[in-house]
Write a structure and sequence with these properties.
By secondary structure, the protein is of the alpha/beta class. Helix 9 packs across helix 10.
């Protein structure tokens, strides 16, 4: 066959690019199209419909779980705060209890559900105390899956799946306890875990730094997955941000719902004999870093990881197990 000229080769390449698709940017376009208006459309729909965020807090009594959640959302959203006749008592077993609120800010509506785990780690024998928590997480996946598989399903499936679990570590200054290792090792496979050191103002800065290093060593040594996982980084920019977060884990936090006067300003803080521990001051604790992660920078990513990674893993396992079961039943019915 006759050889193709260089011009013919170039024309074939250009035709191939037009057929298979390429990246067309502003200078390549003949005029304004208005594609960025899609962002405004998405924003309007989100503001109109609102969205859901479900957060679980796990840790033994007295670590300030309710206070920290209230501080995060600057309102009384914990079950303890919004129950008029709430009475603090240690549960004999782990009993998961949840409370939901609709929070609205600048026209954006969010249905926040806080799942508490009273009784976790409070018993003399805490053997298998993580099982009710794992059961609850998987039940929410099952509920979502059943709704998704219905012939006539709802236009918007109610999302009760746990998007994030804040795990509270006591400020002991030592290593992870066996209960911490066992819980996070199991739950880290099915939900995004963010570990925090509770009441970090009880540690000196040197003790805090050493404790954080020991915990990170324990996490690696025990193969515990905490959020954000490296395998879920989508690009170099996200990897850089997430590496900074991973270097800060676990977050050393202090929670309070009381304001104090500091240099003419009202600040959230804890009053001590030595002064005010300012909750939102990064020089005092890492509460602001935790809030930025959960709300301002990674809230949507937490939801996406829940749907695309944890729920997808559960869905595949359930449907695969169902197919195997159906195949076994069919084989039983075949004539011998």
């Amino acid at each position: 066959p006759p050889l193709l000229s260089p011009d013919s080769d170039r024309l074939k390449v250009e035709e191939s690019e037009r057929t298979e698709g390429g990246v067309l940017r502003g200078p390549d376009l003949l005029g304004y199209v208005g594609i960025e208006a899609v962002l405004d459309q998405m924003r309007r729909k989100t503001m109109k419909a609102g969205f859901e965020f479900n957060i679980m807090v796990v840790g033994q009594s007295g670590l300030g779980k309710s206070t920290l959640v209230n501080t995060l959302f600057k309102s009384k959203v914990s079950r303890k705060s919004c129950s008029p006749n709430y009475e603090e008592k240690i549960s004999k077993t782990v009993q998961l209890q949840s409370v939901s609120h609709v929070i609205e800010e600048k026209g954006v509506r969010m249905k926040l559900t806080v799942i508490d785990t009273p009784g976790f780690g409070d018993q003399i024998n805490n053997d298998r105390c993580w099982e009710p928590v794992l059961k609850h997480v998987n039940e929410q996946y099952e509920k979502y899956l059943k709704e998704e598989l219905r012939v006539n399903r709802q236009r918007k499936i109610p999302d009760t799946r746990v998007h994030c679990c804040i795990y509270f570590l006591p400020a002991s200054g030592h290593w992870l306890r066996p209960i911490d290792v066992e819980f996070m090792k199991r739950l880290g496979k099915i939900v995004s875990i963010v570990p925090v050191i509770a009441k970090a103002d009880t540690l000196t800065l040197e003790e805090r730094t050493e404790f954080k290093q020991r915990i990170r060593q324990d996490l690696v040594a025990n193969g515990i997955q905490v959020y954000p996982q490296k395998e879920n980084d989508e690009d170099a920019e996200e990897r850089l941000l997430n590496n900074t977060i991973r270097e800060s884990i676990p977050f050393a936090v202090v929670g309070t719902d009381r304001e104090h006067q500091v240099n003419g300003h009202r600040v959230l803080g804890r009053k001590t004999k030595w002064g005010i521990v300012e909750v939102e001051n990064v020089a005092h604790c890492e509460f602001a870093n935790l809030r930025d992660l959960l709300i301002r920078s990674h809230l949507e990513d937490l939801k996406q990881v829940t749907h695309d990674v944890h729920y997808e893993t559960y869905r595949v396992q359930r449907l695969t197990a169902g197919a195997v079961h159906q195949g076994a039943e069919s084989n039983k019915k075949l004539p011998k």
